[in-house]
Amino acid sequence: MALKAVVTAAGAPGGPCIIKALKSVKERELYVVATDVRRDAAGLYLADKRYIVPMGTDPNYVKAMLSICKSEGAEVVLPLSSMELLALSRSVEEFEKVGAKVLVSNYESVRIALSKHLVYEFLESHGLGDVVPRHRLINTYAELREALEDLGFPEKPVVVKPPASKGQRGFRVLIEGLRDFREIYESKPTDPFMDASTFLRMYRDSGEGRELLVMEYLPGKEFTVDALCLEGEPIVVVPRERVKVVQGISVIARVVRNEELIRITESIIKLLRFSYVINVQFKYGPHGRPKLLEINPRVAGTVCATIEAGANLPYLAMKLALNEDFEVPRVRWGTVFVRYWDHVVLGKPAQRLTTQ
Prior knowledge:
The chain has helices at about 15-25, 60-70, 85-90, 90-95, 105-115, 115-125, 140-150, 180-185, 195-205, 260-270, 305-310, 315-320; strands spanning about 5, 30-35, 50, 75-80, 100, 135-140, 160, 170-175, 195, 210-215, 220-230, 235-245, 250-255, 275-285, 290-295, 335-340, 355. It is built from 12 helices and 17 strands. Helix content is about 30%, strand content about 25%. A 6-stranded parallel beta sheet has the order 5-4-1-2-3-17, with helices on both faces. It is of the alpha/beta class. It has 3 domains: about 5-105 and about 340-355, 3-Layer(aba) Sandwich (Rossmann fold), CATH 3.40.50.20; about 110-130 and about 220-295 and about 305-340, ATP-grasp fold, B domain (D-amino Acid Aminotransferase, Chain A, domain 1, 2-Layer Sandwich), CATH 3.30.470.20; about 135-215, ATP-grasp fold, A domain (Dna Ligase, domain 1, 2-Layer Sandwich). The two termini are about 25 Å apart. The longest helix has 14 residues, at about 260-270.
């Protein structure tokens, strides 16, 4: 009998490849039910059944998901969007009553992980302050000016971002003016570098009161670590270098055996008692030490690189939830993953979808 799995946010960057990876499992058949808020989400059309659901922050979201799990006889739920995690982690017992295991960590761990500021505070208070970048949480113009000065601006670039965000929204690297027309002529509109005086003026005029995390700029290599774990015990930890990133998404990644990042990630898992698949992002600072950027307590979009390297973490997480034995996979270190454009044909999506 097929294992019935619900995969949420099927339109997320990793949705299609994760669904393909589940459908390619050889030891059993997987019947995949995909959900998303948008009818044109590509992953919906790679699944066996598809539903349109409310946003993960909508009060009706959990009710809709419970209805889907009940009607489809789902055994596991794999969330792909951070926006759904708080609601799902609060409702684990409700899903278990209809026979579905939600692959999510405990609520408190999720709550902390979704806020960069809370994560930094937590790690600093639990002995991992050396991996936390220099930062300040501000919500006034005066505090913003002070934070920039404390972090060495204008001699050094400074990063600003919301404490909790999605897909690099609000992320900017502040620099002191444009030195040359080439900086405009040779850069794309999506370049994160921004003139600091312009940002300061905008924050003063219309941003006062909005929280911002102001932190040191880290110029070194960037890494993401995919990890499978259960109640604070790491099982598989796979770092990968983000060789090329476009709008916050890895388009070229290399799976590397970085023992330093493996050790730090294992410590984070134990401290926050994470379960199932999580994703931890690091960037190296000017002195060659890794600093934590953020923790995603869910499957990352580029987990497909780790899957291609021999570790199908989403499927193994399902086996964990169902108390099934499995062999720890042997990772093919050095695997290089390159993304390219692809497509699905939707036909008439309105006639092929069920709305919850």
